[in-house]
Design goal:
It is built from 6 helices and 26 strands. The protein is of the alpha/beta class. Bound molecules: flavin-adenine dinucleotide (FAD).
Length: about 375
């Protein structure tokens, strides 16, 4: 672990993790130079509102505060990292020497093959994607959404509210959690019905062509607009063949301190797969709290903190007129129990050997807040209970 602060920290990625890393360095008293490079043309902004408030009509960019200018961070927009070697990041604007670096390039939205044919397909990852989509979600248009995960469901919500005729096709639906009880899946399916959205499950989209989207059941689904919401892959191709090791799925490999294989280089956010002591496995998460908290830990460790990064996974989603909040980590073989109590709301709790592993709350965020403390101690590495 580094003990003398470096003269210059270079951060790659202007998303939540990159922004939080810069803020944390300054809050911890770092007085050296901070350079943040991002392929986007603006200051970092927040992504969750893109599929919610922004699609619903808000026009402004959801900014993150404080602004980087107030923190004396050199922001290089429209600049792409193309390589890294010891003490130096190579970018489209030249070489950037560093004493320490934080890699936070996030994900790129996955696309389907052949989708550039008509109808043109959209993805949602950036502010520009959201602004374009918003203008295209107009009444009576036939919208086909491929993927019924969190973002697919949120976009479907906005499209239905805009008066579009919405069809969603997906092999699965609901939050990507193993062993969701059928009654919960039935309830979520009902949310689609309530919003007038046609949900077809068990079908995948193979490719777009000039007449629509070819589905795995051989149907071609016609649509005025196709939106592909099938997850993302790490934006790490620029690290291929570099001294920074990637795992098989191209996530940046890091230890429990978020150190990569290259000395002085840390990773944070959606693109890192780190060693979790809590769960004794390599993990990656693609959620807001993880992006912020991993960046804080990476920044503090650069300044000598020696802090292990070991969060309880947590995410939320607002979709189809409802909210989902999940905390913990469970497996398909854990025992699921549904708690439905009119006053305190509905939740699924998972246990293993009588010890809690995770909670999913439907329209009841307080149940997740309440469960945090119990889960925190049940899954502590020294508790030795849950693996
Ligand atoms: C539409 C949407 C809605 C979401 N809603 C929720 C939600 O409700 N709840 C929740 O928990 N999470 C949500 N998330 C997830 C959450 O926003 C992400 O986990 C978080 O944004 C990840 O932050 P990050 O900084 O790791 O990556 P990103 O936000 O993806 O930022 C990475 C940045 O790095 C830049 N970059 C990439 N490669 C390079 C390179 N080579 N050189 C320079 N710059 C590069 C990218 O352009 C980007 O600006 C949502 C995500 C999206 C897209």
């Amino acid at each position: 672990m580094m003990t003398t602060p470096p003269e210059r920290v270079v951060i790659v990625g202007g998303g939540l993790a990159g922004h939080t890393a810069a803020v944390t360095l300054r809050r911890c008293g770092f007085q050296g130079q901070i350079s943040l490079i991002t392929r986007e043309s603006t200051e970092p902004y927040d992504r969750p509102p893109l599929s919610k408030e922004l699609l619903a009509g808000a026009v402004t960019r959801p900014t993150l505060s404080p602004g980087l200018g107030d923190l004396e961070v050199e922001l290089q927009t429209d600049t792409v990292a193309v390589g890294i070697r010891h003490g130096e990041i190579l970018t489209t604007a030249g070489r950037l020497p560093f004493g320490a670096a934080i890699l936070a390039p996030g994900l790129r939205a996955r696309r389907l093959p052949g989708e550039l044919g008509a109808p043109e397909a959209r993805v949602l990852r950036t502010f520009d994607d959201a602004v374009q989509l918003r203008t295209e979600l107009t009444a009576d248009r036939a919208i086909l959404i491929v993927g019924a995960g969190l973002i697919g469901a949120e976009v479907a919500t906005a499209a239905a509210a805009a008066g579009c005729r919405v069809t969603v096709v997906s092999p699965e639906f609901g939050p990507a959690l193993p062993g969701l009880p059928d009654t919960v899946l039935d309830e979520i399916r009902g949310w689609y019905d309530e919003c007038g959205i046609q949900l077809t499950v068990g079908v995948s989209a193979l490719e777009t062509n000039s007449t629509g989207v070819l589905l795995s059941d051989s149907r071609v689904q016609a649509a005025d607009l196709v939106i592909v919401a099938v997850g993302g892959s790490p934006a790490t191709s620029w690290l291929d063949g570099s001294p920074v090791t990637l795992d098989r799925a191209a996530f940046i490999t890091a230890d429990e301190y978020l150190r990569t294989s290259l000395p002085g280089v840390y990773a944070a956010g959606d693109a890192v797969a780190w060693r979790s002591s809590r769960y004794e496995t390599d993990m990656h998460l693609e959620h807001w709290h993880h992006a912020a908290e991993s960046a804080q830990v990476a920044a503090r460790n650069i300044l000598g903190a020696a802090e292990s990064y070991d969060p309880l996974p947590y995410f939320w989603s607002h979709q189809l007129g409802h909210s989902l909040h999940y905390i913990g980590r469970h497996s398909r073989t854990d025992t699921a129990e549904i708690r439905a109590d009119f006053r305190s709301g509905r939740a699924v709790t998972w246990t293993r050997g009588g010890h809690p592993t995770a909670v999913l709350a439907l329209d009841a965020p307080h149940l997740v807040r309440r469960a945090r403390k119990t889960l925190e101690s049940a899954t502590r590495p020294e508790a030795g209970v849950v693996r």
